[in-house]
Design brief:
Helices cover 43% and strands 18% of the residues. With 348 residues, it is an alpha/beta fold. It has a five-stranded mixed beta sheet with strand order 3-2-1-4-5, with helices on both faces. A five-stranded mixed beta sheet has the order 8-7-6-9-10, with helices on both faces. The protein is globular. The structure holds 5'-O-[(R)-(carboxyoxy)(hydroxy)phosphoryl]adenosine and zinc ion. 5'-O-[(R)-(carboxyoxy)(hydroxy)phosphoryl]adenosine binds next to helix 5 and helix 6. The site of zinc ion (ZN) has 6 residues, from helix 4.
C-alpha cells in the first residue's frame, strides 16, 4: 500500500514508462522519491546474437511487453490505474520506433484516464536517478551523464536549468565499451564484461591514447582509443583468439577501461574546478562501471567535493528515473498534450 494512504497529506503517484532502446521499463513512484515498483524487461538476449540493438526488433518487443509489464508494475505497487495521477514517458533521445511505442501507449493512458501526460528527456531521467535515493541533491551541481549513446557534462542551476559544458564529439563512452568488446569477440553489451575482466588485469600494461582535445576542453572523444584498441586486437589475432589468452585479454581491457575512466574523471574534476561547483552527480549505464565509481569517489574526496552515484540498477535504464523527472516537471507546471511526438536526437 502506498505510504500516502496512511498519511493525511496528499501524495502524487506517477507512472513512468521507458522504451527508448532495448529495455522496456515501467515504474510507479510516489512524490518523485518513493519507488513503489520498478520493473525492467531486458531485450539483451534478443539482440546479443546481432552484436548490437536492432531497432525494428526492439520496437516489436516493446509492443508485446509494455502493457503486461504495466499491469505487473501496478500490481506490485498495489495500486490501480485510477490511483495514478500522471503518466511520464521518455520521448527522446533514443530509437524512433522504440520511443513511439512508449509515447503512443502513454498518450492512450493519459487520454483514457484523463490525467496529465509528461514527456521526459531520457538523459534528464538519468540525472534524476540521483533524486530517488538521496535526500534531494542541492543545486547547483555538475552531472556526468554517461550512457550507450551519450557522454555529457552538465551543470544544473535548478530543476530544468541546464548548461551542457561538454559532450562527446564522436563515440559515447558506452559505445566505446561495446565496440571494443566486439573486437575481442566478447558479449554484448560490452561494458559489464569489460568491467569484470578488467578487475583482474593490470591497467598499466598498455598505453592507449587519451583524447584531451586541447587544454581546458570539456568535450570528449573516444573514437581514437577505440580504433587503437581495435588495431591492437586485430594484430594480436582477436576476435578468433577469444578466450585463449586470458591474461592478455584482462590486461588489455583493464588498460582500455583505465584510459576511458581517466578522461571521464579528469574532465569532471576540471569542470568542477572551473565552474566552482562543489557537488557532482553521476548517471547513465556506464556509471555502473566499478573503476569509474572507485576513481571518481577517490578524486572527489581528494578535492573535498560531494559525490552522488545512484545504485547500479538506477544507473541502468529504468522507468523510476523517468517518473521522478516527470514529477519535478509537473511541479513546475510542465506537461505535454496529445500532440507529443518523439524526438530521437533530443538534447538537454
Ligand atoms: O544508460 P544505458 O543503460 O542505456 C542508454 O541510455 O544507452 O547505458 C548502456 C551502456 C552500454 O553501452 C553498456 O555497455 C554500458 O552502458 N555499461 C557499462 C557497464 N554497464 C553498462 N559500461 C561500463 N561498465 C559497466 N559496468
Ligand atoms: Zn540510458
Amino acid at each position: 500500500m502506498p505510504l500516502c494512504a496512511l498519511a493525511p497529506i496528499a501524495c502524487m503517484l506517477i507512472l513512468g514508462l521507458e522504451t527508448s532502446c532495448d529495455e522496456t521499463a515501467v515504474a510507479v513512484v510516489e512524490d518523485g522519491k518513493q519507488i513503489l515498483s520498478s520493473l525492467v524487461s531486458s531485450q539483451i538476449d534478443l539482440h546479443a546474437i546481432y552484436g548490437g540493438v536492432v531497432p525494428e526488433v526492439a520496437s516489436r518487443r516493446h509492443i508485446e511487453v509494455l502493457s503486461p509489464l504495466t499491469k505487473k508494475a501496478l500490481l506490485k505497487a498495489n495500486v490501480s490505474f485510477e490511483k495514478i495521477d500522471a503518466i511520464a514517458v521518455t520521448y527522446g533521445p533514443g530509437l524512433e520506433g522504440a520511443l513511439l511505442v512508449g509515447v503512443a501507449y502513454a498518450k492512450a493512458l493519459s487520454f483514457g484516464l484523463g490525467i496529465p501526460l509528461i514527456g521526459v528527456n531520457h538523459m534528464e531521467g538519468h540525472l534524476y536517478a540521483n533524486f530517488l535515493e538521496n535526500s534531494h541533491p542541492e543545486f547547483p551541481f555538475l552531472s556526468l551523464l554517461v550512457s550507450g549513446g551519450h557522454t555529457e557534462l552538465v551543470r544544473a542551476e535548478d530543476h530544468g536549468k541546464y548548461a551542457v559544458l561538454g559532450r562527446t564529439r564522436d563515440d559515447a563512452a558506452g559505445e566505446a565499451f561495446d565496440k571494443v568488446a566486439r573486437c575481442f569477440g566478447l558479449e554484448f553489451p560490452g561494458g559489464p564484461v569489460i568491467d569484470r575482466l578488467a578487475k583482474e588485469g593490470n591497467p598499466k600494461t598498455f598505453q592507449f591514447p587519451k583524447a584531451r582535445l586541447g587544454k581546458g576542453s570539456l568535450d570528449f572523444s573516444f573514437s581514437g582509443i577505440k580504433t587503437a584498441v581495435a588495431i591492437w586486437a586485430r594484430k594480436n589475432g582477436f576476435p578468433e583468439k577469444a578466450g585463449l589468452d586470458g591474461k592478455t585479454l584482462r590486461d588489455v581491457t583493464a588498460s582500455f577501461q583505465e584510459a576511458v575512466v581517466d578522461v571521464l574523471v579528469e574532465k569532471t574534476m576540471l569542470a568542477a574546478a572551473e565552474t566552482k561547483t562543489r557537488r557532482i552527480l553521476l548517471g547513465g549505464g556506464v556509471a555502473q562501471n566499478s573503476r569509474l565509481r572507485e576513481k571518481m569517489t577517490h578524486e572527489a574526496q581528494k578535492a573535498r567535493l560531494s559525490l552522488s552515484i545512484p545504485s547500479p540498477h538506477l544507473c541502468a535504464d529504468n522507468a523510476a528515473m523517468i517518473a521522478c523527472a516527470g514529477f519535478y516537471m509537473l511541479q513546475r507546471g510542465i506537461q505535454s498534450d496529445l500532440t507529443l511526438d518523439v524526438v530521437p536526437n533530443l538534447r538537454l
